[in-house]
Amino acid sequence: MPRWAGDTRSRLRAAALGLYAERGYADTTVAMLAQSAGTTERTFFRHFPDKREVLFSEDEQLLAVLLGGVDGAPQGPALGLARAGVTALAQVLSSRRTELRVRAAVIAGVPELQERDAAKRAGWTAALTSSVRARGVPAPEAAIAACAAAGVLALAVDRWLDGPARPGLLVRVDQGFTTLAEVVRGDA
Amino acid sequence: MPRWAGDTRSRLRAAALGLYAERGYADTTVAMLAQSAGTTERTFFRHFPDKREVLFSEDEQLLAVLLGGVDGAPQGPALGLARAGVTALAQVLSSRRTELRVRAAVIAGVPELQERDAAKRAGWTAALTSSVRARGVPAPEAAIAACAAAGVLALAVDRWLDGPARPGLLVRVDQGFTTLAEVVRGDA
Predict the structure, then answer these.
(1) What residues in B contact A183, CB-CB < 8 Å?
(2) Other C-beta atoms within 10 Å of A165: how many?
(3) How far B7 CA lies from chain A's nearest CA (Å)?
(4) Which whole-number Å values give the CA distances from B183 to A63, A80, B179, in the listed order?
(5) Of the candidates B159, B171, B169, B178, which has an alpha carbon nearest to the alpha carbon of residue B79?
(6) pTM for the complete prediction?
């Protein structure tokens, strides 16, 4: 049993993913979500402002993992710091493929969710830039490193969710950094 | 006089930018926009589906410039192709700093517009990837090159709009590619 079984917030989240995937996002009401999670609308709104936010409710914790990876990395060049962040995040995401696939499919079907997701990704790249800067890297280098590392992660996640489960996410992220080096050297 | 003075669509666009900047996006109605451009609401809706889309109305032409830059580039490695695209786009954008600054300030103040803008940028990176692939580059390399080049352009545009007008956008884009090479080599 997962450690959070019984946690209302997690039950609401799981119920939302299930219903969005099954009935569609537009056709799922907060009342249905609450009922499916064995709770009330009132409780739902104590946890989430609206049904869209359920899909982004773990972002704060995941962002903390990303930035924690940078903070905890040994001193080094900009891309190494940014890479430590995305690798820490990939580590956490790598055990959640099934849930992430459902989530990605729901988001892909709703323009409003795609926009929100794109904005979140942009915000994460900005936060990653700040973390790398906080390690003493000048602004332009930090921004370019964060953007490249975030791009490598995003592409690895997308391909891992769309394609076969193997190679796993961490291997795909490593391969992405190798490809980045080849592409920037002009070898590819 | 600009070549398109008198063009209703352009007048509506200019009126929108002016009113959004002056009164705020939320407090500007389509009726005000139409009046300010010397036309009617009915005409507005012949050109744009809503007041948000006015801000993104040139995207199709600009995207064509980006992709045209890739299509017209001499054969070469992935990053060179993607770079030809973003350089072509930067060339067109470089004469529009004043208008782009107003637009960026309007977007920065409205979460709904920020989300839309982020989704547009993500869509452009995907389109850039497809263009690079169409030149014979394998998928992972094309995606990484497009993502890196789009990142360099986005950062150059943001800094050029936020900071001083000089160096100009094309110089900033070139500097960005130099920084990218240094960052990926581990020199920065």
Answers:
(1) 77-79, 141, 144-145, 148
(2) 12
(3) 31
(4) 23, 9, 6
(5) B178
(6) 0.89
